[in-house]
């Protein structure tokens, strides 16, 4: 009998069929894990042999066996290098790291309890340090499966896509705001083109091209279950994947604050600098009330609480977190940024932020559950502030 499922969850019959291909012991408890995309449902299995995470890969590119094989090759390489990569569980027959069944692809991982990023200096430093170790570990890896190339930098489709987006969204927008939407999309398209051109002139395309994670953000890094020294109390525990090493005690090594690196589905060959800049920006990004910032080029300096209404918040960068991430990276990687790389960093931040907002809107017409126009307006404001504060940002990035 074939595996039965729907797009939003793994059914009981599907679960029984899939688990028969693994030696997980007697399963005593099953719970859905709502983290991540609904198109890639996950369940947590508690058995007499431990706790496991079962994931069904999203349809399309993510379920291509070649994509999965590349992902698993990278995970196993990082595990061998001592990094906290997730521990894959093999099938009973052939010890395969993926199960292809009923036109779907499944994975099983060991499970670990952890916490989310607490926006402390120590966590930001640790995230930068571990990214540096990942880059060192992947620098010479030549995978048996082909890796895609390219990233958010200098993509020729982005600017035309933004200009066309205005026409696509116009029927969904009040007629009085249609011209504002076109003006907004044109502003973002022009800014992306300028940033791409300036970054390319700094040599970004030729700097340290290698295999990178390409999706280094707080949702893909799981921290250990203790509060940071000098940081805020951690949020409630969240679930993730367990590395195959026994858990090391947290010491003076900042990278040991991190329990697991998650989600290798976006690995690709691209400039190391692009991964570093996007990662630093992701760990420093915050939402702030429209009032209460210090007014310095719109950059946030504290740890503001976000508002639920997009009308009441702005996107900004926490300078202290940005600096901590770069310090952790430089300390572990051992190579300082060249002056050209440092000058290119704000331009890459602009490119990354525009692509992150535009890509889901272009695909779905919305940004998650939010209307696209307010999001694009916030991104336009934030990227303009980054451009005006480029000199300050370079100083933060390069400060010891």
Compose a concise summary of this entry.
This protein is of the alpha+beta class.
Task: Kindly describe this structure.
The chain has 400 residues and is α+β, with helices and mostly antiparallel strands. It has two domains: 1-117 and 231-262, 2-Layer Sandwich (Phosphorylase Kinase, domain 1); 147-215 and 266-398, no CATH class. The protein is built from ten helices and twelve strands. Strands 1, 2, 3, 4, 5 and 8 form a six-stranded antiparallel β-sheet that branches. A two-stranded antiparallel ribbon has the order 6-10. It has a two-stranded antiparallel sheet with strand order 7-9. A hairpin with a 2-residue loop joins strand 4 and strand 5. The N and C termini lie far apart (62 Å).
Task: Give short descriptive properties of this protein.
40% helix, 2 domains, globular, 12 strands, Phosphorylase Kinase, domain 1, two-stranded antiparallel ribbon, 400 residues, disordered N terminus, alpha+beta, six-stranded antiparallel beta sheet, 10 helices
Helices and strands: which structural class? alpha+beta
Q: Care to count the β-strands?
A: 12
Q: Given the structure, what is the number of helices?
A: 10
Instruction: Please state roughly what percent of the residues sit in beta strands, choosing from under 5%, 5-15%, 15-25%, 25-35%, 35-45% or over 45%.
Output: 15-25%
